[in-house]
Amino acid sequence: MARIVHAASAQMGPIAKSETRKDTVRRLVALMREAKGRGAELVVFTELALTTFFPRWLIEDEAELHRYFERQMPGPETQPLFDEAKKLGIGFYLGYAELVEEEGRIRRFNTSILVDGNGAIIGKYRKVHLPGHSEPQPSRVHQHLEKRYFEPGNYGFKVWRGFGGVMGMCICNDRRWPETYRVMGLQGVDMIMLGYNTPFDHTGHPDIDGLTSFHNHLSMQAGAYQNATWVIGTAKCGTEEGSSMVGQSAIIAPSGEIVAQAVSLEDEVITARCDLDLGTRYRDTIFNFAKHREPDAYKLIVERKGSVPPPEV
Ligand code: ING
């Protein structure tokens, strides 16, 4: 029997610094209801979906910084989203800033969860690839201080059974790294969900930043095709506190084709009928890892993180 998932991506327009959790949860509930009304059983929200993208600022007061974080999930302010999901019978991916006490210390992660149609959390992921800097950069109009506010994720890239298939998660910058998709691809993932906050001025090099939209879809389409998986990427977009961020939320098939794409820079729901067995057909042919990959040929002796010895001439 065909494994069909009716999925939605719920793009968010700007979240102002002044918006409360109540405000953002209200927007998320409205998007969830629209997704359900259009037949979706799963809706993918974005990265850090409960607040403005605060890593654009240097925040030196710890109490102020921690106001952007969730100490419980669900907590009193996010419980209405879980309640609505259970009432509607729809699952969701949600990105948020996580503050926990683990191993005897306060730890902060850029986190996402996967919640099933009964409102139960079935998966949790912590962002591995943190872009930007840990110290403010004098030359930048907007900072990008994820390395200052979050630790790299310590869960790796896992997959979970749900919605009739094998589900995976990542967050924003993770989508630019082939390893993200491959580690889940080697686990037989059928659908990878992710949210992103992607400013147009990240590097400060106009020739690179001018390709932000192209690189956004290139990363997700390549990851989908090369690992025979659906990819759903949901933006937080528009001009948020002066920072202009790319939209283009998309639902991408294992063929690499974009089957649905947002056209605004506001809250917008897009949907698609995702046949998970399309991925199976690619995994049985072109990307039959067991038949065609040569792991022994890929072994590199990497002496230090990120460095590869020069080729022997
Ligand atoms: N944001 C951006 C992202 O990876 C970025 C950072 C923007 C990197 C543009 C490269 C180019 O989409 C987050 N939050 O990771």
**Span between N and C termini?**
54 Å
Structural Rg: 19 Å
Strand content: 25-35%
CATH class assignment? Alpha Beta
Q: Describe it for me?
A:
This protein is α/β, with parallel strands linked by helices and 313 residues long. It has a single domain, classed as Carbon-nitrogen hydrolase (Nitrilase/N-carbamoyl-D-aminoacid amidohydrolase). The protein has 10 helices and 14 strands. It has helices spanning 21-37, 62-66, 79-88, 146-149, 178-185, 206-209, 212-226, 277-284, 289-292, 295-298; strands at 4-11, 42-44, 91-102, 105-115, 121-126, 159-162, 165-171, 191-197, 230-236, 238-240, 243-245, 250-252, 258-261, 268-275. It has a 6-stranded mixed beta sheet. Strands 6-7-8-9-12-13 form a 6-stranded mixed beta sheet, with helices on one face. Strands 10-11 form a two-stranded antiparallel ribbon. A hairpin with a 2-residue loop joins strand 6 (159-162) and strand 7. Helix 1 packs parallel to helix 3 and helix 5 (178-185) packs parallel to helix 7. The longest helix is centred in the first third of the chain and has 17 residues, at 21-37. Bound molecules: D-[(amino)carbonyl]phenylalanine. D-[(amino)carbonyl]phenylalanine (ING) binds at residues 131, 172-173, 176, 196-199, 202, 212.
